[in-house]
Amino acid sequence: MLRWSFRSAGEAQTLDLGIQLGRLLKQSALILLQGELGAGKSVLARGIARGLGVDPRVPITSPTYTLMNHYPARLDLYHFDLYRLRDPDELLEIGFDDFAFGAGATLVEWPERLENDATPGLWVRIDNLKDDLRELTFLPRGEAAEELLLHLRRALSS
Ligand SMILES: Nc1ncnc2c1ncn2[C@@H]1O[C@H](COP(=O)(O)OP(=O)(O)O)[C@@H](O)[C@H]1O
Ligand SMILES: [Mg+2]
Fold it and tell me: Which whole number is the average pLDDT over 106-124?
């Protein structure tokens, strides 16, 4: 398993990383975003949405109260924020599995609420080092996520 870390010096850099990642997403991509409140999960999610081609006039905001936002783009993007999830049954009600394992691309903030930390996908943990400095640690689970991470690293180094 190839874990990879990236240091971001500010919001713009995290956004840019997200854009690069969003451009590379294929059908059924699942990205799980971990980190404390204010770490930058939604900033990365916004970049991913832009890279995937969500209309730049559409605001990308954390779906904290709605649990999920859907954005049509090159692939349908489903953005979950499970912070306020109380009961895993709510996931069934909103059809989480249909989206997360469907043909679109799915982002999940607070995947800890899923109670399955081995869900296949690209896991990203964001740590706040100090001020605007963040460390993003990418941990791919499964072949598709490993390939995605390799493509991301290649895109960043070219
Ligand atoms: N390097 C960085 N990457 C991402 N966000 C940063 C960075 N430095 C400062 N920030 C700020 O941290 C906050 C992150 O907010 P947000 O993405 O909503 O957090 P989360 O979704 O993890 O709760 C924003 O106010 C952003 O401007
Ligand atoms: Mg958020």
Answer: 91
Q: How far is the CA of 19 from the centre of ligand 1 (A)?
A: 15
- Closest atom, ligand 1, to C-alpha of 38: 19
Closest CA to 18 of 61, 64, 50: 50
139: number of Cβ within 10 Å: 18
As assigned by CATH, the class of the 4-157 domain is: alpha beta
- Take atom 9 of ligand 1 and give the residue whose Cα is closest: 132
Instruction: Give the ligand with the smallest distance to the CA of 39.
Output: 1
Does ligand 1 come within 6 angstroms of the Cβ of 41? yes
pLDDT tens, residue by residue, 36-54 = 999 999 999 999 999 999 9
Which residue owns the Cα nearest ligand 1 atom 13? 38
SS3 breakdown of the chain: % helix, strand, coil, rounded to 5? 35, 25, 35
pLDDT of amino acid 94:
86
Residue of 99, 47, 32, 105 lying closest to 74 (CA atoms): 105
Residue 104, SS3 per DSSP: coil
Please say if the pLDDT value at position 9 is more than 70: yes
